[in-house]
Amino acid sequence: MLSARGAMAAVPPPPAETGWVKSILRRMTLEEKVGQLFTTRVYGETADTTDPDAVRSNQAFLGVDNAAQAIARYHLGGFVYFAYAGNTRAPEQVAGLSNGIQRVALDQPSGVPLLLSIDQEQGAVVRLGPPATQFPGNMALAAGRSVADTGTAAAITGQELRSVGVNQNLAPVADVNVNPANPVIGVRSFGESPEMAAEMVVAQVRAYQDAGVAATLKHFPGHGDTAVDSHSGLPVISHSREELDQIDLPPFRAAIAAGADSIMTAHIVVPVLDPSGDPATLSYPILTGLLRKELGYDGVVVTDSLGMAGVRQRYGDERVPVLALKAGVDVLVNPPVMKVAYDAVLAAVRGGELTERRIDESVTRILRLKWNRGIVHSPFVDTADIAGTVGTPDHLAVAQRITDRTTTLLRDEPGALPLGPTGRVLVTGWDDPAAPITTAALGRALTERGLTVDVLSTGAKPSQARIDAAVAAALSHDTTVVLTNRASSDTGQQKLVNALLASGARVVTVAVRDPYDVMHFPEAPTYLTTYAFNEVAMRSLAGVLTGAIQPAGRLPVTIPDPADPGTPLFPFGAGLTTM
To answer: Mean pLDDT per segment of 10 residues, for the chain of length 579 residues?
Structure first.
């Protein structure tokens, strides 16, 4: 259920955008215009933090103590929030940070509020955790096959973000995941169907923007068919132009037609579009030729983080922001050293490599977005409204109902499910070593349903000693539920599952992220996938395991047979609906 305040956020501002944008642009200095092109991270819980650790990190990265000083020095256009930077401790704290930043911004000569961004994709990528409402992410929503549910998830997420002052979500992911070995997209995608991805991306774009939050499609022109992570390398997409048109571009085309506020570039090489070897972020043929001219997009183009290896391999950090602007980018995100990037853009304009007219084009788009999304008219949030918006019982109940429709049962040959009310159950397997909550969450959920449960987490990379302990424990339990997460990246997880299967214990195997894990144990007799490892997903899993919830999810991807990759082990759409 969405509150009245959430609906109010969608009311368009007065029709004076052009006049306001022109008036601001006329009185801006070149330094202020260049500052509007940058969105960067900042450390600390408040805009004027004096926390020694935050100050130390800000000095190293920005050359200033805090957000307030960064705004004054660089005339920034935005910040992006991260949990590791201390920005998202609690909803009230986030709102205070947002309000503090906007007060500083409005006190500057230009008086332009900031874009305050976050990667709240849900599922595997979340910056604002509980008590904010959590959903299982895009691939799970695609497994549920409901465009309405997909839009509702974004509407609730958008409403909660806007209530704490976040006005741009770096979501939804529009990549079409057609490569089981993709190390960076996977469940962040809506799956392998371009048509389904397009429908769901459009639903999320509209829901975010109706909630007053700018949506950001990523990662253009499509990051779904790569086996390289652009955080650590430079992927090459070998698709033909026909394949791009059929697979990668449909979600972007549909969302552009739906009025998406912004699009994020990918640090990937696409030779058929640009044979130079430059990543898309720095490619004029891709960003101006394809995105601007061919697809007709005139919204804001933002880079993926400029600190990622994929964009830094060919050029120095002082060249990357200049080349990105020349390619057609508007917003430069997270340069490795702010002063280097800012000074480089200023020097490029003063030296004639970039014209001030080119800068004005990008600033105009940025100002237009801030006006049209209501940020100019409503830069502040009322902290008194947070309790009635963030993580409300209504929102949590909706999230649980949606998630209950996504868990996918792919095989149950011996009829291990549902788990009976008697007997002992062992929950073991993967957990995040930094926050081992997944096995515990499933254990709690099964206990709440009346089962006798023991939990033995083996971590993300189980040692032989932990594997041996799990096998010994399994033999003293009636059923063992073992969780995996990206088993392809860890032989320890593969050994754990295969050892449990070989032990003769009754084993239920569950992939709590990418469904492709089963390729490493194709004979697993009972196999499910949740696409997410958060508590809402574990509660749904517990319902399916006990028979309280009938499995309803269907695979949004094909899982190939490891012995014959051209043959599906489980085809697109697979999923048992009764037990």
So the answer is: 37 62 96 98 98 97 97 98 97 98 97 98 96 98 98 98 98 96 93 98 98 97 85 88 97 98 96 96 98 98 93 93 98 97 98 98 97 96 96 98 98 91 94 89 97 96 97 97 95 97 97 97 96 98 97 97 93 91
Q: Which helix (H) or strand (E) holds 456?
A: strand 452-457
User: What's CA 468's distance to the chain center, in Å?
Assistant: 36
Structure tokens belonging to residue 422: 């008697």
Amino acid type, 155: A
Q: Sheet holding 78-81: strands in order across?
A: 300-302, 262-265, 214-220, 168-169, 115-118, 78-81, 38-40, 332-333
DSSP states along 258-271: TT-SEEEE---B-T
- How far does Cα 497 stand from its chain's mean position? 29
Q: Which of 149, 175, 304, 490 is catalytic?
A: 304
Residue 223 is among the residues annotated as catalytic for this protein: no
Contact 185, 224 (CB under 8 A): yes
- How confident is the model over 418-445, as pLDDT tens digits? 998 888 999 999 998 877 899 999 999 9
* pLDDT at position 11: 43
pTM, two decimal places: 0.94
Contact yes or no for 405/538 (Cβ under 8 A): no
**Burial state string for 202-215 with b = 16 or more CB within 10 A and e = fewer than 16:** bbbbbbbbbbbbbb
First-to-last C-alpha distance (Å) of the chain: 31
**Can you give the pLDDT at residue 429?**
98
Q: What per-residue string of b and e applies to 448-475 under the rule 16 or more CB within 10 Å gives b?
A: ebebebebbbbbbebeeebbeebbebbe
Residue tagged active-site, from 48, 51, 229, 231:
231
Phi-psi region at 122: left, alpha or beta (left = phi > 0; alpha = psi -120 to 50): left
* pLDDT, tens only, 519-572: 999 999 999 999 999 999 999 999 999 999 999 999 999 999 999 988 999 999
pLDDT value, residue 287: 98
Q: CA 467: distance to chain centroid?
A: 32
Contact between 553 and 571 under an 8 Å Cβ cutoff? The reply is no
Q: In terms of Cα–Cα distance, which of 545, 553, 488 is closest to 514?
A: 488
Residue 228 is predicted with a pLDDT of 73
Alpha-carbon torsion (413, 419, 420, 426), positive or negative: positive
Q: Which of 437, 556, 543, 472 is nearest to 140 (CA)?
A: 556
Half-sphere exposure of 361 (CA within 13 A, CB side): 15
CB 134 within 8 A of CB 535: yes
Residue 343 burial (10 A CB sphere; 0-12, 13-18, 19+) = middle
pLDDT at res. 5: 34
Return the residue matching tokens 């007997």: 423
**In whole angstroms, what is the distance from residue 91 CA to residue 73 CA?**
28
At residue 393, φ and ψ (nearest 5 deg) are -55, -40
- Is-catalytic flag, 231? yes
